[in-house]
Amino acid sequence: MAYLDYLFKFMEGNPALAVGFNIILLIVSGMFTHILCKFLLIKVVRRVFFASHKQDVPLEKDRRIAEKLSNFMPVIIVYYVLQFMPNMPPSLVTAINTFCGILFFIFLSIFFNEMLDIVNSSYVRKSKRKNHSIKGYIQIGKILIHVIAAIMILAVMSNKSPAIIISSLGAVAAVLMLVFQHTLLSLVANVQLSSNDVLQLGDWIEMPDKNLSGEVTDIALHTITIRNWDNTISRIPTKNFLTETYTNWQAMFSSGARRIMRSTSIDQHSINFLSQEMLAPMLSVRGVNEPLAKLLDGRDPTGVADSWFIDNGLTNLTLFRHYLMAYLAERPDIIKDMYIVARTLKPSPSGIPLEIYCFTSSIFWMDYENTQSEIFEYITAVAGKFSLRLYQYPAGHDFWRLSQESSGRDSAR
């Protein structure tokens, strides 16, 4: 006790030393409270939550709540310890109180933001309406929390009522919006892109209107940088991603499948009902027997009369479509668990489009293009086995062949 009395008397005669000692005491008390909260308060709060949860319920949100609550304690302790410290200059006390007030509202906004995130994740996990989202309402709530926290921080820093801050903001809002309109638009766009998780570094995006196709390399406040596949660099204003159309291919990479949706045209005059004469070259193609047996309900194709094909509406194009679906299902580079469709589209002057719809097991461009090319090369070659002709506009060779046939007929006369 005598030593403490001597220390206090010594500090009374040295104001600078007293202030330094008090500041060190504040720092030590804040650090001690922070460490104590990390090892004590979080465990206490989580133990309380343990009692109300089942074993299969995740307790991650309990830890998040406890950690955010533990941030308040050092600020509160430092604020109240400061009130009992003598020999502190009023200006320094005011500065420390202001700093504590700023930290208090910052931690308060962080805590409420964490609560909103927990509400959103709980709603997504427990809601029966899986396609319904409250993320928009959560984001509005976060904006309001940040606005209120900013107003309270300004009130603490200026030592004025929050009502005065709100009334003064209304007078300069129009001027600020006019001067910083591009910055505000970019800020809103950046927040929406990041919060909605629709654009990230490394995404492959396409903007047809800008003739852009490449990888996102940088996301800044005002611009987004894209490295095109020809190694050129393009910078697009961030706000353009809210007003213009673009395609993000990242979801395709994440799914592990890439879609093929391409068609070839069939000459309408080559489509006929099946007949025994047609079946001979078709049966020579490996894999035709299984789809044909399904269409014939297990009948022997050599014993079916031509009239049966007509009565049941089986054409060479019908068999060709079913054969192509079986052919695609056997390919190792086509995903079996996703759609495999061979369908005809609306007829046009160029014939009947036969569309192939399936998904490749490789998402890489070279593998994808190779698979797609192999499929349509095979369709082009095998269509003749089914007495089908692929439509194409007459070329020079066609006119030459017609002229040769015409001259041959003339010479025969």
Automatic annotation (TrEMBL):
Residues in Mechanosensitive ion channel MscS domain copies: 184-250
Could you give a single Gene Ontology term from the biological process aspect?
cellular response to osmotic stress
Q: What is its subcellular localisation? A: Membrane
Q: Which residues cross the membrane?
A: 20-41, 69-86, 92-116, 137-157, 163-180
Keywords noted in UniProt: Membrane, Transmembrane, Transmembrane helix
InterPro entries of this UniProt entry?
LSM_dom_sf, MscS_beta-dom_sf, MscS_channel_2nd, YbdG
A molecular-function term among this protein's GO annotations: mechanosensitive monoatomic ion channel activity
What GO cellular component term, any one, is given? plasma membrane
Work out whether the entry's keyword set contains Ubl conjugation.
Answer: no
What is the name of this protein?
Mechanosensitive ion channel MscS domain-containing protein
- Protein source organism: Pantoea coffeiphila
